[in-house]
Amino acid sequence: MENFNQTSTDFILLGLFPPSRIGLLLFILIVLIFLVALFGNLSMILLILLDIHLHKPMYFLLSQLSLMDLTYICTIVPKMASNFLFGNKFISFIGCGVQSFFFSTIAGTEGLLLISMAYDRYVAICFPLHYPIRISRRVYVSMIMGSWIMGSINSCAHITYALHIPYCRSRAINHYFCDVPATLTLACMDTWVYEYTVFVSTTLFLLLPFIGIACSYGRVLLAVYRMNSAEGKKKAYSTCSTHLTVVTFYYAPFVYTYLRPRSLRSPTEDKALAVFYTILTPMLNPIIYSLRNKEVMGALRRVMQRIYSMQL
User: Fold this and answer.
1) Disulfide: which of 6, 66, 78, 81 matches 44 by Cβ 3.0-4.6 Å?
2) Cα torsion angle, 99, 102, 105, 109, sign
3) DSSP string covering 253-267, please?
4) pLDDT at position 232
5) Is the pTM of this model over 0.85?
6) d(Cα 229, Cα 223) in Å, to the nearest integer?
């Protein structure tokens, strides 16, 4: 690593797996998780497109979540697997910028999408008669487009800064993907301004949405508690607990990682926490939403029956 050409524009990704039998087992496990996430999210998107009963705002938002999770895992895992299998840990300067752009875009966009999903459930449970007006087609399409646009703008700002600072130390990034804060540890200038912008972005795109979601679900749970229908309570609790599980898995590791000062962070801990939101969450989301949602399971049965009848 010390002999790496300092004039090269390539970076080295040190990776996630140790060069041992345990590393190989972890690699196989990650590949299996990747395949489950790939199949689960593709299936969720196709199911929502094919079944007319799922053509509702909640499920269009869910299809966007699956699309984001697909982008997450496809941006990071194939390159990580290739590096481990072939021993080539290099990534070009442009390749690193592209990977960072997609990661940062999805991170911000998904944070905003989750609060849109929470708002959808809040209106559906607390103001059911107003739902068609408050969550009209124009409204939920605007929420989706707004999430993508704001996430992309935020990502462009971060990546533009990262690509225009000088790197004069070892090109070895102690991570398994091009996470901008990990990359900036190699910079030969003071990056306190960028660290402050990371704090602001994390607050705006993750912490504040998380607080908003917590407040909205506080109102939702109060409304559910006052319901007279036992079946209505059960359905509302099921929907809310599903979304809260997804929200916790996503926000908690992100906020814990990026709101801490760099002096309190360690590369090993950052990589372990990153596994949650880049690999585990994309696998868990479609499983959680399908197994705990009767409408999704019903749609799956209908689509399977339709495919079976076409084969006959």
Assistant:
1) 66
2) negative
3) HHHHHHSS-GGG--H
4) 67
5) yes
6) 12
